[in-house]
Amino acid sequence: MDRRTLLAAAASLAATSMAAFADDKTKTTPSTAVTVPSNAIKARVIVIGGGMGGATVAKYLRLWSNGTLGVTLIDRNPTYASCIMSSLVLTGQRTMASQYYNYDALRSKYGITTVFGDVVAVDPVAVKVRLADGTTLSADRIVMAPGIEFDEVPGLGTSDRMPHAWKAGPQTTLLAAQLAAMPAGGTAVLTIPQVPYRCPPGPYERACLIADWLKVKKPGSKLIVLDANPDFVTEKDNFSNAFFNLHRSVIEYHTNAAVTEVDPASMSLVTTVGTLRNMHVVNLIPRQKAGGLVAATQLNNATGGRFAGVDVLSYQSTVAGADRIHVIGDASATTQPKAGHIANQEAKVCADAIVRILSGGAPDPAPVTNSACYSTITMTQASWLTAVFQYDPAARAMASVPAAAGASAGWSSGNFKQMNTWFNALMADTYA
Amino acid sequence: MHTHRLSRAALVLAALTAAASGFAQTPPPGRLLASNCFQCHGTNGKGPGFETLAGKSASKIFGELKEMQAGKEGNGIMTKHAFGYTDAQLQALAAWLSTQR
């Protein structure tokens, strides 16, 4: 044992004694709180992006390394605006304030360091990050969870007259205000981009919700849904039943309808199936790619350069020499959907793999992930959709288990209640 | 008595050595699998969310999941979801959840 090892041993002994003392204290007041002991740091991980994937990987790296991995989480904003449930802000059923989450618990319960700033460069070989203010941080591993970015729509420019509201926040508030100001008997448009995009059922559930709201609040109005895809992307039974029966008086659905140009001044859209003019509200959801840092780091080697190719055993980048950079969530290219619930599970697989790798081991050879969500079909009823993915060693990809993939037969108010339980549980597993 | 003291000292030394060399983190079997439950049943199965799973017996958790597969628990989201795992995986995640207090 050299002097340094001895000091480390002494430090961990002190930490152990303190942990034992804390245990004694909690014995008298039973608590099931999940926390992390303050052990000596053996290696460091930087997490870029504090959304569903980033927050989860930061939390579980601390938890599963028993506090021996130092984790720094970097995000532009000190609060996260949840996209999940944000369509209910459009109908006035939830407030925007209720969508915000902060990093207080990640700091206090799990000992995560947060840095709020703009990452301008990632060096995948030196494993370093540079911030806009000139600060440089280095680590043993970097996990990138930058989410998505939108393609530019010709003609849109910097206009805020056709909000996407597909990253929750000011855009959500903007679209809610535009819908509220819409006249009865007016026409709204919602555009669905070509796959892959964030939250496959999301645009369809939003269309259903807005249609139900229009019936009550803006009688005689129409909602034109322009889908760039050849058919419903997911949950076809429920969404087609809702579009063609339940909401038939409101929704007009067009497939293979991609937006090629817009004119915000005249609220017009040029599409592959015709031109629409003088629309009252346009919810323009553009085509998507990984957050800009992925392309800037040249990790965008999949889906025609849009997303990051990863090894789904660890979420390490498949770019040669960049294997100490992991990419999780919507920014990565996998067979799994781009959505918050499964980003949370990808984050756990990634955290488990990093703990194993930095301990000298190999990732779990058979990871399992799952996707689950509820979709609002009306303002009080919801459907559900779920899938489980098992690792397929031959394809080196996550494969959906057929028997476990599917949706509810119809929708119900019971599912709507369950949706709230699911949302609160998911956000607690991610931020609390 | 001497042998006892000696082995105890050896144990302490072994523990110290383990703590000093890297993380010595071998994830417990079933934990990563069980983490698929956390989104809806809380971190470590301790809530908030649907039914708390932490500390339930492994045979009870496994038994309920098998009943779901058999269609005895209605046709909700968990009935569909339960089909996503092999029996060995269900047993492993149930065993890990049962250790949570």
Describe the structure.
The complex is a heterodimer of chains A (432) and B (101). Chain A has 432 residues and is of the alpha/beta class. Helices cover 30% and strands 26% of the residues of chain A. In chain A, β19 and β20 (316-317) form a beta hairpin. Mean pLDDT of chain A is 93; it is low at 1-31. By secondary structure, chain B is mainly alpha-helical. Chain B has helices spanning 2-20, 31-34, 38-41, 58-69, 77-81, 87-98. The longest helix of chain B has 19 residues, at 2-20. Chain B is globular, with a radius of gyration of 19 Å. The two termini of chain B are 34 Å apart. The relative contact order of chain B is 0.16. Chains A and B meet through α1, α2, α9, β23 and β24 of A and α1, α2, α3 and α5 of B.
Helix content of chain B: 55-70%
Please name the two chains that share the biggest interface, counting residues whose Cβ lies under 8 Å from a Cβ on the partner chain.
A-B, 58 and 40 residues
Overall SS class of chain A: alpha/beta
| pLDDT averaged over residues of chain B | 84
Low-confidence stretches of chain B: 1-21
Question: Main β-sheet of chain B, in a few words?
Answer: none
- Gyration radius of chain A, rounded: 23 Å
**What's the total helix number of chain B?**
6
- Strand element count of chain A: 26
Strand content of chain A: 25-35%
Structural class of chain B: mainly alpha
Number of H- or I-type helical stretches of chain A? 10
Low-confidence stretches of chain A: 1-31
